[in-house]
Amino acid sequence: xxxxxxxxxxxxxxxSAVAGIYLKGSAQKQWxxxxxxxxxxxxxDVHLLLRDDNALGSFPGTVDDALALQSQIEDRYRxxxxxxxxxxxxxxxxxxxxxxxxxxxPSPPETVTVVYGEDYPGGSCDERRERELAAQxxxxxxxxxDAVPLHVVDKPGAYLLSALRNLTWRVSPLGARILxxxxxxxxxxxxxxxxxxxHSLRALGEGDVAAAYGKFYLSAWAYFLSGYVDSAAGRDxxxxxxxxxxxxxxxxxxxxxxx
Length: 259
What we know:
This protein is of the alpha+beta class and 259 residues long. The protein contains eleven helices and four strands, in the order αββαβαβαααααααα.
């Protein structure tokens, strides 16, 4: 999928306009157990860096431009993989925009694969700031948790997938953020895959968090393997996601880290 994305991006834009294309997230890390990647729940995180910030408004352009790019990525992937077990879900983000956000921290270079162009634009790591941001993000989950009941009550069977995916982007970094507020160095916390995060949380006495974190992904696997027919597995995944988010809020409150 990543190769198809790169080819489509460079085909639709001049290569000279693209500074770099980078792979991040769970798809980039080593997989040691099923929790490290769940089809159609985990994303393939691709970041695009353009050379000229003035070109941001023209990418991806109109709706038709965006749909044409999506079609090209899909066609190229299907040409390479005739009968996939599943179609990976790419998430394409413009790195130029992220780098401008006040609370964005560039990823440690070890957690990024350069698939095209220049080295990833990292920066110095302010460990205190990273811990404060982690605590702030964990505390912000309270509002999201309040919205879950209404978001899941009317979603039988395969419809639960949308509710599950709405939790995924919050649950995924949660393990590393808890490790951060417990004292794990940022470079180490963000470099760990989920299997290693589970082991690290247990080693630090956070067995309940580790159990809920692992259950979220294992239940999501069962839900996927059922073809989204096993609603009970979907509900188990959502319940585990809610539990681990709640425990993340509690951990941040207990830490007393100033935000």
